[in-house]
Amino acid sequence: MKLLVIGSGGREHALVWKLSQSPRVTSILCAPGNAGTAQLAVNHAVAATDLDGLVALAENEKVDLTLVGPDDPLAAGLVDRFRAAGLRVFGPTASAARLEASKSFAKDFMVRHGIPSAGSATFTDADKALSHCASARYPLVVKADGLALGKGVVIAQTPEESSKAVREAMIEKVFGSAGDTVVIEEFLTGPECSIHALVDGNSYSLFPDAKDHKRALEGDRGLNTGGMGTISPSREVDAAMQSRIRTEILDPFLRGLKTDALEFSGMLFPGLMMTPEGPKVLEFNCRFGDPETQSLMRRLKGDLLDLIEATVDGKLSSVAPEWDDRAAVCIVLASGGYPGPIEKGKEITGLAEAAASSPDVVVFHAGTSLKDDKVVTSGGRVLGVTALGATLEEARAKAYAAADLIRFEGKQLRRDIGASVI
Ligand code: AMP
Ligand code: GLY
């Protein structure tokens, strides 16, 4: 079977790495891919948001099945376009991907179907939002409704801060139309946890939990990023919690899809806060997490293609994925300055040494490209160094030892991935 994977991050390299192990896969194309996917797939210089180009690529190359990594092509209707062209594709349609692309749509869905989340109010009028800010309890969370590259959420401590966030989103339009509507919600407390479940509309397959580290600096300080590292399992989810996640979140989610006639097929990735009252949904993502996928793919035994096909064909209830009991860690190596402006084109050395440091280590590429046969940096998050270990401590030790063998100018990483759990 010939596959196409869309995207260029560490998530996509991890998916390509896992899919390439399937005996049923004959070749993989990646669009646009990175220097890591180039080792296992053929990269094509078509952007993940170029829907016409991607349809043409899949048709010309006679691709059998396409997987979409990032959120924006899903929100833009890539799956609808592929289906209309008679192409087989994994992922939700644009109307179902609104669960990620519109926070107010997701809120309405959760309220209608009794899925626990923070109490909230939605505003399309800036003056009404500002008067809400003046009378609310603090801290308060202000969220731009649409996709804002992870920058659309502000945790405000004072009415001045929340009003500033409202003005920036709704009046100054710093996120464009993504800020036409804002959701203002109550501040929740507790550890966060990333849940992944394949959903085919009739059933779901729950993956092991993972934990991301979103802030740029150690001790959860600094700016929010796409994610600086993950562990799986997170130790937030024991058997009792897993059962609550099923009955309080995933079961009502599935019932809600049916009631609302929403056709959802693909990966559901709810970000949860484990509050004193129980798990609550912070957001729905309708795709694999990055860098959660890097840790999860290290723990998946068996064939990812079987799971993807079962999802596309509505046969998830017939598959039972097996998971490695060992712990997985992913340490992100980022460019200096990330998540702010960065310099690209820095040569990366030590990749082979890192990969050879232990059979339990795999280095996934993210923002990398090839220049004159050398691997150079080309993005904010550059690499995801993953390791498996009998314990989280062991996995961390191997991952950090490998990460230390890799060098590029400006390299930054957090030394405390998973530390809070130990
Ligand atoms: P989101 O993009 O909605 O997941 O929000 C990004 C981050 O903001 C989350 O990972 C949380 O750390 C934080 N956050 C979002 N909503 C809330 C909330 N209601 N209470 C506390 N923190 C939140
Ligand atoms: N790691 C968080 C995300 O993929 O949104």
Can you offer a commentary on this structure?
The chain has helices at 10-19, 51-60, 71-75, 78-84, 94-101, 103-112, 126-135, 159-171, 239-259, 292-299, 304-312, 351-356, 392-403; strands spanning 2-7, 27-32, 42-43, 65-68, 89-90, 120-123, 140-144, 153-156, 182-186, 192-194, 197-199, 204-206, 211-212, 215-217, 221-224, 229-232, 266-275, 278-285, 300-301, 322-323, 327-334, 361-365, 368-371, 374-377, 381-389. It is an alpha+beta fold and 422 residues long. The protein has three domains: 2-94, Rossmann fold (3-Layer(aba) Sandwich); 125-180, Dna Ligase, domain 1; 192-421, ATP-grasp fold, B domain (D-amino Acid Aminotransferase, Chain A, domain 1, 2-Layer Sandwich). Strands 3-2-1-4-5 form a five-stranded parallel β-sheet, sandwiched between helices. Strands 10, 11, 12, 17 and 18 form a five-stranded antiparallel β-sheet that branches. Strands 13-16-21-25-22 form a five-stranded antiparallel β-sheet. Strand 23 (368-371) and strand 24 form a beta hairpin. The chain is globular. The model has no long low-confidence stretch (mean pLDDT 97). Bound molecules: adenosine monophosphate and glycine. Glycine is lined by residues 212, 226-227, 285, 289-290, 292. Residues 118, 141, 143, 153, 155, 185, 187-188, 192, 214, 271, 282-283 line the site of adenosine monophosphate (AMP).
